[in-house]
Amino acid sequence: MKNPWTTELWRMLALFGFSFLAGSLIGQAQLFLIIVLVACLLWHLYYIHQLRQWLNSKGKFHPPQGRGLWREIFDQLYRLQKGKRARKKKLTRFLSRFKESTSAMPDATVVLDHAWQIQWMNTAAKTLLDLKPKKDIGQYITNFIRHPRFKAYLNVGDFTQAIEFQSSMATQAFLSIRIVPYGKNQCLLVARDITRLKQLEEMRQDFIANISHELRTPLTVLNGYLETMIDDDNDSLNSWQPILQSMEQQTTRMKNIVADLLMLSHLENSPSLNGGSHVSVPALLASIGDDAQALSGDKQHIISLDVDPQLCLTGVENELYSIFSNLIFNAVRYTPAKGKISIRWYKKSTGEAHFEVQDEGIGISSDDITRLTERFYRVDVGRSRDMGGTGLGLAIVKHALLRHNTQLHIKSKVGKGSRFMCDFPTIRGIKKLP
Ligand code: ADP
C-alpha cells in the first residue's frame, strides 16, 4: 500500500509543475503558482476547520469525509474513536457487573485511600457499618468505626489477620473486619457480621462448661466410694480389689479430664486480664519442682532449677501454676529415666521475664509441634493415657499464656528432647522482691 503522505506530496509537486508549465506558456507562471498555492491553502484550511468542528463535538459524531491525505487522517480518527467506544462499552459493562456482584455480597466492602478516607462502598456497608453512599464519601472511616481496637489495628498496620469486636451501633453486631491493601495506596475494608458464629461459639463453650460441671459431682461421689471400698479391710472385697483399683483409676482420669475442661472453659470465657495479683514465681517453681521430683519417682530424673529468686509476676496464681506445672510435668512424663530436665526463670536484657523447660525426652516432630496446643491432640494417644495425660494440658497453657500477654514457643528434635519457652512482657509488672 502506498504511503498517502508521499502520494500527497507527489500530487502537490505535479500540480505546481503543471501550473508552472501552463503559466509559462502564456507568460503568467508566477500568477498561476500563486493561484494554485492559495487553492491548496484554502483546501487544507477547509479540512482543518472540519477537524476542529469534529474535535469540538467531543467525537460524538463520525469524523468528516475527506480526500487524499485528509481521508487517511479522518479514517484513522474514526478507527480510534470506534476502538475507544468499544473499550468504554466493555468497561461500563464490567463496572456494572462488578457493582451488581458487590451489591449482592452480604459482606460490607469499602474502598479506602491512603489516608483512610472512604472512596466507594457497596450496599451491605449501609446496613452493617451505617454508611451513607452520597454523604459519607470522602469522610474518614474512623469517624464511623470508632472502636479502639480498630484504631489500633490501623495504626499498627499489620493486616495479616482480621480483628473482631462488637459494634457500638444499634445492631450491636459482632464484626470481623479485615483490611486488604491493593494497587497504589488503596485499601479494601471487608466487614462481616459474625454474630451468629459468636453465639454458636458461646453455646459450645457453655455446653462444655455445663456438662463438665454436671459430671464433676457424680464422679467425685463415685471416686469417694471406690476409695473407701479399696481401703476397706473386709475380706469379702479382696477378690474385687483389682477391679476396684482399675475403676478408681478410670474415675480419677475422668475427674482430671473434667477439671481440665472446666479450667479451659473458664480461661476462654474470662475477659482479657488487666493487672492481677503479685505472684512469687520462684516459690511456685520450687513447689512444682518438688512435685516433679515426686512424679519422677523411680525414674530418677535429674531436675535442675535455675531461678532468679527475686523475679515475680503480676498475674493469676492458679493460671500461672497451670502453665508451669503442665510444662514441667510433661517434661517428666516424656523423658526416659535418669534424663536431665532443666527449668530456667530469668529476666532478659530486653526486660521480659523468660521461662523455659528443657528436657532430654522423646522429642516432637515439626508437623506435630504446630498442632500440639489443640484440644486432645496427642502425638501418641496410648502413651499419653499411660502417663495419666488428658490431652488438654498444652491447650490450657496456650490460653493461660494468652491471658498473660504471651505465647508458647516450642523447639524440639525427635529423639533428642524439647524446649518449651515463653517471655512475659514488662507490662505484666514484673517486680523484684525487696
Ligand atoms: P497430655 O495430657 O497428653 O500430655 P498435653 O496437651 O499436655 O496433653 O500434651 C499434648 C501432647 O504433646 C502429648 O500427648 C505429647 O505427645 C506431646 N508433648 C507434650 N510435652 C512433651 C514433651 N516435653 N516431650 C515430648 N512430647 C510432649
What radius of gyration results from the CA coordinates?
A: 41 Å
Low-confidence stretches: none
Number of strands: 13
Order of helices and strands: HHHEEHHEEEHHEHEEHEEHHHEEE
Q: Mean pLDDT, nearest integer?
A: 90
- How widely separated are the two ends? 99 Å
Shape: elongated
Which small-molecule species are bound to the chains here? adenosine-5'-diphosphate
Content-based structural category:
alpha+beta
- Describe the largest sheet: 5 strands, antiparallel
Key words describing this protein structure:
434 residues, alpha+beta, five-stranded antiparallel β-sheet, five-stranded mixed β-sheet, 12 helices, 13 strands, 17% strand, binds adenosine-5'-diphosphate
Kindly describe this structure.
The protein is an alpha+beta fold and 434 residues long. It contains twelve helices and 13 strands. It has helices at 4-25, 29-56, 69-104, 123-129, 148-156, 195-231, 241-269, 281-296, 317-333, 366-369, 381-386, 393-403; strands spanning 108-112, 118-121, 163-166, 174-182, 186-193, 277-279, 302-307, 311-315, 340-347, 353-359, 409-413, 417-424, 431-432. The strands form three sheets. It has a five-stranded antiparallel β-sheet, with helices on both faces. A five-stranded mixed β-sheet has the order 7-9-10-12-11, with helices on one face. It has a three-stranded antiparallel β-sheet with strand order 6-8-13. Strand 9 (340-347) and strand 10 form a beta hairpin. Helix 1 packs antiparallel against helix 2 (29-56), helix 6 runs antiparallel to helix 7 and helix 7 runs parallel beside helix 12. The longest helix is centred in the middle third of the chain and has 37 residues, at 195-231. It is elongated, with a radius of gyration of 41 Å. The N and C termini lie far apart (99 Å). The model has no long low-confidence stretch (mean pLDDT 90). Adenosine-5'-diphosphate (ADP) is lined by residues 326, 330-331, 334, 359, 361-362, 364, 372, 378-380, 384, 389-394, 418. The site of adenosine-5'-diphosphate has 20 residues, from helix 9 and helix 12.
